Amino acid sequence: MSESMVDGMIERKDFSKIRANIDIPDLIEIQKRSYEQFLQMEVAPDRREDKGLQAALTSVFPIADYNNTAILEFSSYSLGTPKYDVRECLEQGMTFAVPLKVRVRLVVFDREDKGPKKKVLDVREQEVYVGELPLMTERGTFIVNGTERVVVSQLHRSPGASFTHDKGRTHASGKVLYSARIIPYRGSWLDFEFDARDILYVRIDRRRKMPATILLKAFGFSTDDLLKMYYPVEEIRVAKGKLLRKLDPEIHHGLRCSIDVTEKGGKEPIVREGAKLTKPMIVRVKAAGVKEIPVDSAELVGRAVLTELVDPVSKEKILDKNHKLTPETIEKILESRVESFKVIYLDAATATPVILDTLEMERTASKEEAMVEIYKRLRPGETPSIETARVLFENLFNNAKRYDLSPVGRLKLNKKLGLDLPLEQRTVVSQDVVEVVRYLVNLKMGKGEIDDIDHLGNRRVRSVGELLENQFRIGLARMERSIKERMNLLDMETVLPHDLINAKPVVASIKEFFSSSQLSQFMDQTNPLAEITHKRRLSALGPGGLTRERAGFEVRDVHPSHYSRICPIETPEGPNIGLITSLATYARINEFGFIEAPYRRVRKGRVTDEIEYLSAIEGEKYLIAQANSKVDASGRLVSETVSARYGGEFIIAMPDKVEYMDVSPKQVVSVATALVPFLEHDDANRALMGSNMQRQAVPLISSEAPLVGTGMEAVVARDSGYVVQAKRAGVVESVDATRIVVRAEHRKREEGGRKSEVGLDVYDLIKFQRSNQSTCITQKPVVRLGQPVKKGQVLADGPAIDQGELALGRNVLVAFMPWGGYNFEDAILLSEKLVREDVFTSIHIEEFEVEARDTKLGKEDITRDIPNIGEEALRNLDESGIIRIGAEVKPGDILVGKVTPKGETQLTPEEKLLRAIFGEKAGDVKDTSLTVPPGVDGIVVDV
Fold first, then answer.
1. What is the tens place of the pLDDT at every residue in 30-43?
2. Nearest CA-CA partner of 277 in 258, 296, 292, 297
């Protein structure tokens, strides 16, 4: 059944069978929301959250001088209003920015006071101007030096812990070696790895490796603590020359019984010798009165004792604690009067000797020794003291200014390791390292799972706000150093905060980011779709990301977790394939930077209208049906089985087992791909080319909306920012090519009744503005004088927009047939009518500049008086020598007349005579006028 839908101004018939019960979100929200959270412009200073600009400033301040005699504290920041509006910035080549002022407080202490709480001499507070901060326009772009730029979002590896193995490639034997890595948002990386002999090593910042137990000891654990943490402890009793173990269901399940066990009064043994014990069997054995079973001495060889073994009679020391038992020491124990001792329990299924063997490798006795060992690895060649080693270690992992896991990193660590630490704990604590080592050892024994680094649960998006915050931190760190130096040089009794702050490094780092960062790009402005796609782009490249030479096939490939989050089709062909992608239509980015997709809740086989957003990790826990599953009028899934996804796999499931359902078939693909009608019938490779080629369509003189659309056209036009929509309902009072005036009636509720307030809404239209790609941005009114308009109705179309809908091409008749060989292979035969009627004619605006400089021989002049040029060539120039607006020009025509002084040359007798008569230098200038280059003709629109 078809139904009419009005989104733009064109009435469309909707033939779709699947109704999407969720509106397509604002397509450039990813940019706008991220920058809003960075600035927190509308939030009162005391209510600002610790993120963005606020977080960057609070992380650097307070700044104390080296002697702690003064502290510079941060109070708040404020943002002014832009000096120039967007249009002025584009025309004048300015940056659209707001002034940033920071309120700081200088607290000066008494130098003579040596106590812990020093006496405050003076507090001086001041607002200091830091510099201009580029502001985002309503269309999600930045204007830097008169050009529109876009900051592309970056897809990078999420902070946290990741576990992996080498697939048996490292060692010649093909043995699989497991490794783990703790990646902070900012700070030193920690790598744990096994070698072929099963010794566990750690590397800090990819330096020389060392046994991992050294790091654990540096965190304050003793050898005793480590053995008790990673191994179960069992007690062995010595009786009549035999060794007996006390049975414990928690430790000994899986052990083979060393004797037959029979219940009291029973004839048949309940457990035979050599049988494998289970927890219930051990409980039965103990109930039968057997509390201990003999243990073979060979089984104890290689285990560490947890207490020092001394013969109670002769007082002879048999073995130091934490040392391994040997056949000789066991023999000595049996001969001595030792009654019992505790050993660690080793078993192939529950506990491997990895930690024990690693402890054997190194013999650091204390925390201080371990710190010194780490210092030697990180600063080879320097002689360490205990204090310098301690400071280095503290700075590596406990200093919040140098090491930051970020809330995301802490969340990921907590989830992976089953911890319950608060998200505010953003440095690595001993518990993290202990649990990472435990998980890694368990992995080696076949427990737990390795991580897929290409899964979207392990990759997150850094949007413009976060990228700018990082850049701001770099600038503030440089500023901090200069503040500390000034504090030591200046007299603190008279100095004011603004004397200490040199904001140049901050301004320079922001300028550097916008002008030269790989992620701050010159906006693709060919048509509205190209703009929107650019703002929704995700790049794996850039600082802290991948490089296209190093990126392998796995990173570029489509991953099951991309479903409804990243478009599997739209990506460039060539070296960047798979590294630059596009956000799916309905996808959004959550507070942690993970991409979320919307799903409809399904309860007992009935699809509800509840919408829930799930991230890639959450999405894998549920059974999710496809959007095209058949549903009856009451919302019940009617098919006997439905196609669904679970854990990244496609399966056939029963309707009553389904928990969620996709909201729309469009949610799988990006905006550009969703504009392709009947996409499901296309080959994926050709659909990729089609999606990319739509962005290259040039706006035509007369746009025409497509006859067959997908329903996305009006959405793209709306979010492009080029469609003028009515702010309030009213009547069109006046309309011309440059502005529309609507007399709006706005009802205002007042006490004692309703009051109508009439006002005029004026909409100025953009005319012949040059885009970054030299295409023409112009707006045309689509309303008539006296026409009533509703709120949100389209008043004017932008480039490549027709009646409020995206219109990239024209509806022309195409025939697939041979025509005398003229259309052989990829040749196209074109009707003359298309050319004559300007069906595919577009306007391009070229900009030409000329400079009049001071040369060694004199000044260059812009003038109408050009030597050896006839009046015909000068007819369109004004008295200053500049072309008039509206003049039609062709190649070779003069745009700006300019003359440059020539060097002195040998004069002919005639010239000497003229010079003598008229006393002036005739013809000592040459023509250097700006002319129209070959292949360009058109009309001058602006000067």
1. 999 999 999 998 88
2. 258
